[in-house]
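Q: Is it fine to ask for two folds in a single conversation?
A: Yes, each is treated on its own. Send the first.
Q: Here.
A: Result:
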Amino acid sequence: MPAVPFDYYAPASLAEALALMREHGEDAKPLAGGQSLVPMLTLRLARPTAVIDLNSLTELRTARREDGMLRIGALVPHRALERGEGVLAGCPLLQEAAALIGNARVRALGTIGGSLAHADPAAELPAVAQALEGTVVLRGPEGERAVAARDFFVDVLTTALRPGELVVEVCLPIPAPRAGHAVEEFSRRAGDFGIVTAVAVVELSPAGDLTRVRVALGGVGTTPRRLPKVEAALTGMRPDGRALRDASEGAGDEIEPESDAHASAAYRRHLARVLTRRALGRAVDMAQRG
């Protein structure tokens, strides 16, 4: 099925891209890696009158380290995240998560900004942004604003982006000393979206107690979900196997998954418990070794 006809624009600068987005408003769609938008165009799930190709915007392909944060341009591809290129090596959780995305072609073309803006609740990077308490930087007709990841994802394929705005940067904190992370995912085939994905980030005190715990799940609702009760149950605790197991049992109670063709709601709750326990266990092991 061919896409609905649209006008194609290839701006040479971010300013030109923003002007086109402002001109066409809600009828415009930005094109980054195209790994989500092009299939939606082909299936006519998206029907823009204008497609704004961002691939000439080299200013959105850089990453830098600043004030304890990684500031990653929206067009940095998954492949660069997977390889930990340059300063991206400072956040190894990105390497682990990006390696789970699609296949080599998808990782070569897909971008971090495109993944977050698409907001598929089963995708890996939205859950990572939640677990790391990252920030998404947007620019549009009213200037630039920063939106915390917890507020950016609103519903299925729906974000806090306003008409005319673009994701320009993703800000993620650089891990503290004695920190650990892990991603655990269950999918039907390698490269598929996870039926459930668990991302855990922990920090330990010099005495070995958990001082900070963050867990985010993908595939269990309309947006990535943090697990505040699981996090609170472990904060201040000695991270032995029993504590991790007992806290992880509560993961299924903090989500409201739906049944679909891939899994029942009950099975997703079961996976949430199992994958949360595994992710926390690996994250703690890494922090203890560090």
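Q: Second one now.
A: Result:
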Amino acid sequence: MKVTLSVLKADIGSIGGHITPSKAIINKVKNFIQTEGKNTLIDFYIGYTGDDIAILCSHERGTSDEKIHKLAWDAFLEGTEKAKSEGLYGAGQDLLKDAFSGNIKGAGPAVAELEFEERPNEPFVFFAADKTDPGAYNLPFYLSFSDPMYNAGLMLSPKMNKGFSFRIIDVDYTEKDKIIDLNSPEDIYDLAALLRDGEKYVIESIFSRNTGNQAVSISTTRLHNIAGTYTGKDDPVALVRVQGEFPATGEILAPFEIGHLVAGFMRGSHNGPLMPCKLNSTISFFDGPPIVTGAAFCVKEGKFTEPADVFDHPFWDNVRRKVSEKAAEIRRQGFSGAAMLGYNELEYGGIVDKLEKLEKKFKYRD
């Protein structure tokens, strides 16, 4: 059976600042999808990560389908109205366009989609991150799909012996999609050269070179490119097929142990370690730290199993402690150096205006 997985995510309102959506707006979105999507969707799952609500659904309409995207847009609008009635912070924050225009991409919400012929058993992992940007997935997926230190299957499995193809998008270029395809293993140095700059070059998708089948889809929306100013971090989602011709689930998860530094954190203007958290986790310290959650499913004829929380294991408790220490350490550096993003990436206009005013006060010494 050919099935499409779509995940559509947005921040439409939160309690106490950027902490968590209310139960009321989560239920509002869920009930809307359940009612309005009953003749369109095969199955769906609603979850949240930090202050973002995600709609994961299965259907047979293919990617970028107007009806699916309109369904999610309308659900987010319904949730926004509920958020406004509750006086939640940032109601409708990620809905950056006044009206739906056929596709939710470019309108604010994050979107990742995969279309494929189901295998006899079809496991996948849905990742959602908060307080960071799409480049947060660059290092983990580079390691999972190209480095045998993290993916033993590259050495041991004949189903992966040709490696993987990475599609990279330049998210700074806004006139049209600007992409490049690079292959692992022969292009890994070129891959590394691009992926080190997660604010400009971002993995959009990954394909098996043995079969040509797509393994990964990542949302690559940069909100400040749409709004022209800071409205919140991009908070990317990702869909990853696992096992068989793709890395095992454990090989996908292994690099998240690093707690690598990513852009985001408070006001989207700092660097902080990415913390793997349990499903439906909230945001706390310094509007962070940046977090990622993972829900593993199997899908059969479009129907989902219940989710398995990939970071709900005693091992990850120790990782979270390590990441907490790492976050506290870099925050002790305050505004100085690498603790804050470079001027070209600062997303709050106040400091830009301040620098322009200060520039006029500089004098040339004789």
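Q: Anything structural to flag on that second result?
A: Two points. The chain has a mean pLDDT of 94. Residues 66-86 form the longest helix (21 residues).
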